[in-house]
Amino acid sequence: MSHDVQYGTAVASVYDSFISPSMLTSDAVERLRPHVTDARVLEIGVGTGRIAVPVAEIAAEVVGVDNSRPMLEEFRSKGVPGNVVLVEADFRRPLPVTGRFDAAYATMGSLACVRSREELVAALTHVRMALKPGGSLSMEYYATSTYRPLVAQHTLTMPTPHRAGGTTTFTVTLDDGDVLTMHTRIDEDDAPPVEFAEQILLIERAEVEACLAEAGFAVAHVDPVEGFQPYDWYTALNEGMQ
Ligand SMILES: C[S@@+](CC[C@H](N)C(=O)[O-])C[C@H]1O[C@@H](n2cnc3c(N)ncnc32)[C@H](O)[C@@H]1O
Fold first, then answer.
1. What is the pTM of this model?
2. Is 172 helix (H, G, I), strand (E, B) or coil?
3. Mutate to test the pocket of ligand 1, among 1, 19, 53, 67 (most ligand atoms within 8 A of CB)
4. pLDDT (tens digit per residue) in 24-63
5. What spacing in Å lies between the alpha carbon of 84 and ligand 1's midpoint?
């Protein structure tokens, strides 16, 4: 099995200036608040700390796992809150974290960065094993109702949010194994283009729920996406004793 790193230096270099500003953090933090307040919390795919920083203000401790050194370096360069610990690790392997967590979360579809349903179940199992019995997983996962039309459209060019004059072009394809590849190219007048690609497993809501169940979670709640937003929101509880 390959354990490649998807998020390289190109995406890390633009994440906070181009990608984060188009995604409001407040909605995610409000949804997480009941689970993370005063809790020991695990973030899967912590990235540059977009959500970990506000969560750290209300949680007792946040351990953020990510396999991308460039993303973690971006986070470190901004200053990591005192109650946040960063761990460079791949969630497709058992997580090298100690002690059990009250809650885990994965925003912006981090856990969808897998190549098959089996890999998703393995990743979810690794998260569950780090949780206390009854501990919660909150997860944003790519909504097929938003991404299937993008696959049909194939290429979409739009003004880059918050950057006057710039454009962003997405090229989206889906293979036979339901792996969606989204190639992004950001063009600005005065700079060379920035290009990167992400691959995620695009499966129906019922299949995501089935993967959670196979990993030992009881699905407590699913909030389907509204309109043309990217993610459904799942809340699941660790059913197992270990
Ligand atoms: C879309 S970003 C989300 C970052 C952050 N959660 C947020 O909401 O801004 C996805 C993150 O998942 C991380 N990631 C992807 N695959 C991973 C893997 N196999 N193991 C650990 N982290 C992974 C990426 O490096 C990236 O930082």
1. 0.95
2. strand
3. 67
4. 899 999 999 999 999 999 999 999 999 999 999 999 999 9
5. 16
Token pair 């590849």 in the structure block, residue:
181
- β pairing state of 217-223 and 191-201: unpaired
Ligand 1 mutation target, pool 84, 107, 113, most atoms within 8 A of CB: 113
Q: Bridge partners of 169?
A: 157, 185
> Model confidence over 84-99: pLDDT tens digits?
999 999 999 999 999 9
Q: Do residues 242 and 129 lie in contact, with contact meaning Cβ atoms separated by under 8 Å? A: yes
**Does the CB atom of residue 90 touch ligand 1 within 6 A?**
yes
